[in-house]
Amino acid sequence: MYKLFIAIRYLKRRIITYIAIVGVSLGVMVLVVVLSVMGGFQREFHEKIRGINAHIVIGCDDWSLKDYEKIIQQASLVEGVAACAPYISNIFIIKGTTVDFGFIKGIDPLQEAQIGKLREYVLRPQEAEIIFFYDRLKQEISLLKEEIAHQKSEGRPPLSPAQSKILERNLGLLEKELEVRQREFEKVKRAYNRVMKRKPLADEELLEIFGCRTTNLPGLVVGIEFMEHYNIGIGQEITLLTTTGLKEEDVHEHRFEVLSAFKTGMTENDFRFVYGQLEEVQKFIGKTDSISGIGVKCRDYREAPKVCAELSRVLNVPQESNISIKTWEEQNKTLMRAVQMEKWLLTFLLSMIVIVAGFIIISILTMMVAEKTRDVGIIKAVGGTTQGVFSIFLIAGSLIGIVGSIIGSAAGLLFVYNINGVADIIEVLTGFHPFPKDVYYLDKIPTSVDLTELAMLIVPTVAVSFLFALYPAFRAARLEPIEALRYE
User: Are residues 216 and 186 in the same domain?
Assistant: First the structure.
């Protein structure tokens, strides 16, 4: 017990000790916040992927999946399967002033809604128009501000009185235009916020959106980014081309009516994907009696690998077949690995803060050994052992790590649980929200506190403090009592 008492006594009298504790605390706090926020984003990212894609996909690349009703019936009987939905998909090229590609997916709306979050992502036509107008106004305001700043910028050559008047008039017109746009934006923003809190579509609404037509053309529900990029409104017509081979007769062209839009919050999906009725897309692709695959929803997404293996057994898919059965993780393996690597790379870089605090610890203890040489001599002279002296300085270094880790973890968790309140305060003070809802399509900053990760953070921090205390403790333990006292 005397070892702990002496270690605490040595530490609490030094200001630099508290600096070291603050260093460890800041390092741990930053790591806790980063891991929690990155974990929250990762969780939301995974949920969005599972909302867009099925937990398991039974698919083929050449639209040769026939007799799919029988496959759905067999798959539905597998334990752990909650729902199944057929689909057909292919790449398309949009015909217009610019040429770009995307992916068209034919679905049964109600069945697709059972395996994913189609009800949450599909917008009512009026909601799509509100978001479209909101984003357009936001872009126009940004451009107007840039133009006004450019007109006011210094460093331009001297202007004549006539040119100055023209510039002043132009600036006045731009500022008036900006005021008008900002008033419109504030009105639309209120409607936009209501859209962001909208309820998911009911079955009747979903069927109405996919089935409503003002023309005899087949309909499409496009991504909101697609709609904005091509400046397409609800009810307008677009022409798409697709192909199932390299021959001219394999190329199909068709006109579609835009029925509404969807927004998943993942820009690439909202720009590249469009949805249509299964039968209409089958006709467009030229495969009226077959599909591309079947989406399968598990009762628990974590059991997807187990259910996938059972589906392979029940459906008896030959290895040489072009039919594959993959889980949602296997379909997005590269993307998910990139997100995970980003999280751990950021954690590794920020952990350098703890290493820096470790060097502070070794400096403190080294100076402490030099200053307490007389004390070490007295301790050994009255019967203290080498191991006892070694333990005193080892405990001192470990205490800095333990106290710093506890304070850092508590401060980090406090910040994490109040991070959205902090973001709101920043917005009130600066007018800038660090997590804009219209960019991330989330109501708040997502966080996820993993106790295992927290433990894996605290243990290495204490271990670093322990390791950096070994050298000073070893030096103190090697001091001889006579040598330690001879200069006194």
Answer: no
Q: Is residue 333 part of a domain?
A: no
Does residue 425 sit within a domain?
yes
Confidence of residue 440 (pLDDT cuts 50, 70, 90): low
**Is the whole-model pTM more than 0.85?**
no
The neighbouring-strand residues paired with 87 are 107, 293
Taking alpha carbons only, the member of 200, 48, 46, 203 closest to residue 111 is: 203
In terms of domains, do 480 and 362 share one?
A: yes
**Residue 286 tokens, joined:** 């030229």
Strand bridging mode 100-107 / 273-277:
parallel
Q: Which two tokens stand for residue 429?
A: 């003070």
Q: Contact, 48 vs 264, CB < 8 A?
A: yes
Q: Which of 191, 200, 231, 53 is nearest to 124 (CA)?
A: 200
Residue 383 DSSP SS3? coil
Asked if residue 179 and residue 100 are part of one domain, the reply reads no
Does residue 214 sit in the same domain as residue 302?
yes
Shared domain for 372 and 468, answered yes or no, is: yes
Between CA 109 and CA 85 the distance in angstroms is 9
Q: Are residues 188 and 209 in the same domain?
A: no
Range of the domain at 306: 54-124+200-328
237-266 confidence digits (pLDDT tens): 999 999 888 777 788 899 999 999 999 888
Count of the separate structural domains present in the chain: 3
Query: Token pair 């709101």 is at which residue?
Result: 424
Instruction: Please report whether residue 349 resides in a domain.
Output: yes
Tokens of 161: 């009185």
- In a shared domain, residues 447 and 475: yes
Torsion angle of C-alpha atoms 87, 88, 90, 96, degrees rounded to 10 = -90
Q: How many degrees, rounded to 5, is the angle at CA 237 between CA 106 and CA 205?
A: 55
Would you say how long the chain is, in residues? 488
Question: Parallel, antiparallel, or unpaired: how do β-strands 219-223 and 56-59 relate?
Answer: unpaired
- Whether residues 369 and 442 share a domain: the answer is yes
Model pLDDT for residues 38-82, shown as the tens digit of each residue: 888 888 888 888 888 899 999 887 888 888 899 999 999 999 999
Q: Quick one: 97 exposed, middle or buried, by C-beta within 10 A (0-12, 13-18, 19+)? A: exposed
